Amino acid sequence: MALTPQPKELAQIVRDAGMLALENFRPGKILESWDKTPGHPVTKTDLAVDGYLREALGRLNKDAGWLSEESDNAASRHDDQPMWIVDPIDGTRDFIRGRNGWAVSVAYCVAGVPQLAALYAPTKDQMWMAVRGEGADCNGQTLSGSQRQSLNGARVPTDSLSEADNILSMVEKPNSIALRMAMIASDQADLVATLRWGYAWDLAAAALIVLESGAMATEATGKPLIFTSPRPVHFGVLCSAKGIHDAALAHLRPRAEKVSAQSQQG
Question: What is the pTM for the complete model shown?
Fold first, then answer.
């Protein structure tokens, strides 16, 4: 399938967006922020990067719809058209706190399926790219995702483990869910799982990077991640090595079914 945007063009735009964010990043210092909704902080930099991306990506494909954490435009989106799915700063809490675990995330989707993705972590100068059917790379190095075959001891980026998960092994966790997923693609972790409703802008770019690295990315129930719903939400995410995906689904299933039922009742 021919892509209107070219990977090199997208990479440059996302890198420039990251540099714009980096101008206002203060390592080890807390930035001013406010909650756009309870529990969802935002800064002036989120909005500035969002505005830059909307203008720059619009030049790559003026007919594409737009879905961003900071400027959702439902009127621009139709299932049969291309769409940009954007998180100008994924991991805003780490950005606010002067920590490194944040990134700029952009995916170009057609019929809800990511075709091209860029994920850039400016503080580490790491650029993950993926083109559907052509693989994924980080700073030009081809990625081969985690090859783990056993759930016991699987590396999980997390701050703590519940008793039910003590068969797993903790590794350092960035605040950005996209960066945690990219750790699977670059074989720095084996499993990432959440049981919360997640948004398309958090997942779309990283999901393509993971899949093109040879690993797996689904909803927490195993359903595929498709980004066409009028409500851009998904029930959790399960990202892992192919060899442990089924075991991880079985491990999570009782909790996933309970949380899903509770949320539907609410």
Answer: 0.93
